[in-house]
Amino acid sequence: MLSQAKRSRISILVMGAGSNILAKDDCIDALVLRMRSGEFAKVKFGKERVYAGSAALLNRLARLSCAQGLGGLEFLAGIPGTLGGALVSNAGAWGRCIGDLVKDIRVMDSSGKIKTLTASDLKFGYRRSNLSKYIVLSATLKLSAADPKEIERNIAGYLKERCASQDLSPSAGCVFKNPAGRSAGALIDECGLKGKKSGGARISEKHANFIVNTGNASARDVINLMSKAFEAVKRKFRINLEPEIKIWQ
Ligand code: EPU
Q1: Where are the domains of the chain?
Q2: Which of 92, 161, 179, 188 has the maximal Cβ count within 10 Å?
Q3: What residue's CA is closest to ligand 1, atom 17?
Q4: How many Cα atoms are found within 13 Å in the side-chain-facing hemisphere of 111?
Q5: What's the fold here for domain 37-151?
Q6: Which CATH fold topology does 167-248 show?
Q7: Distance in angstroms (rounded) separating the CA atoms of residues 102 and 119
């Protein structure tokens, strides 16, 4: 598929669970790849290691690791994404990110060549990595032995905090990255934009960096609200917010 796409000059977009993507309303001029089959969702455990395919869901990974008495992934519980998507965007929460756990990552490059990237090949930053030019196939993460009951307690604690502070209605999670030392949600909140609507989209009353779909939101509705938030924060704080979600034009 990759070589066919390359020959025909069709660009390729890779989708994980789709939870951090805003796709434009009409058609997307690209080949969208989504790894979902058994092979891509495989999970295997070793000594203080988990090897998983890029389609493995983070919640499942955290729960399976817990059952093996392996901790380290608890902070990812509640993020509705796949391992592949999480690695490319270096997903994180509660001051931790998935990049810190990586031992190695198997990727395919645009010519179809498969290689294994190790620490010295990988660059992770806040919600970014140098993986977007590849298709992530699988990864090995470093975990540590722990009491499953303790891991379960930690997962429950993170989920409780998430429920208390974030909006669980349909959304793409935080739409903007946090600017250095600040919270994008708090900045948008201080601009008085909570509850602001555009069509079927609304800036969450609970957390202003979430834009929820009230049922029939279009991508245009979400982008309108993002532009309003961007302009308001720029005017009031002289800060240019950077989108966290991937917008497929
Ligand atoms: N706040 C407000 N008003 C709001 C939202 C937040 O005043 O509408 C305040 C909070 O009260 C708190 C501060 O802003 O004092 C920070 O808020 P919060 O603890 O909710 O964290 P955040 O910075 O908004 C980040 C990540 C989340 C991650 C949480 C928990 C980003 C953009 N967001 O949110 O990640 O789950 O910390 O660690 O980095 C995501 O990436 O999609 C995401 C949701």
Answers
A1: 37-151, 167-248
A2: 188
A3: 183
A4: 2
A5: 3.30.465
A6: 3.90.78
A7: 8
